[in-house]
């Protein structure tokens, strides 16, 4: 049986349509956004994460996070909903830090807390900022952002911070303003 000329055309036309459809499906439209990202995928994802740092058998700090993303090649851990407890030489909690996110550098033991950062010292002093770093080498916390410190009713604000995690000694680096509680009905007095 011989296929007539009309049949050859329809088979060839169907093949051409299939080929064109395959080409159109694989091509991206100009200006279209793709779901690809340049950020590498983590090597591990851990929920209910916890990690501690010790020195000479004494606990220095403990980090707890809802989720941790571990990147072995970059030697970092990214966290969500983190809480850090800093310990004194007797093992007591000297301050607590909470933040939306964080990054731990496993090579240097430096940490960065980001988003709604709140540090509360054992004495009740609080520090609020959007970004704060723990420098492992100097054992201090630092920020380059706006900060707000509340101590016994006094409110200190400014830009930049350097101090101890227990907030017993610290320095606001620039543009410091203070509202000092005077203990009377007027509420306070502002000093710059």
Strand order of the largest sheet: 1-2-3-4-5-6-7-8-9-10
CATH topology: lipopolysaccharide transport protein A fold
Which overall shape is indicated by the principal axes computed on the Cα atoms?
Answer: globular
What's the helix-strand series? HEEEEEEEEEE
Compute the number of strand runs.
10
The CATH architecture can be given as Sandwich
- Taking all Cα atoms into account, the compactness measure Rg is 29 Å
Quote the beta fraction. over 45%
Quaternary state of this entry equals single chain
Total of domains: 1
Give the overall average pLDDT: 83
Outline the structure in words.
- With 192 residues, the protein is mainly beta.
- It has a single domain (44-191), classed as lipopolysaccharide transport protein A fold, CATH 2.60.450.10.
- Helix content is 11%, strand content 56%.
- It is built from 1 helix and 10 strands.
- A 10-stranded antiparallel β-sheet has the order 1-2-3-4-5-6-7-8-9-10, with no helix packed on it.
- Strand 3 and strand 4 (93-105) form a beta hairpin.
- The longest helix has 22 residues, at 5-26.
- The termini are far apart.
- Mean pLDDT is 83; it is low at 1-34.
Give a short summary of the structure.
The protein contains one helix and ten strands.
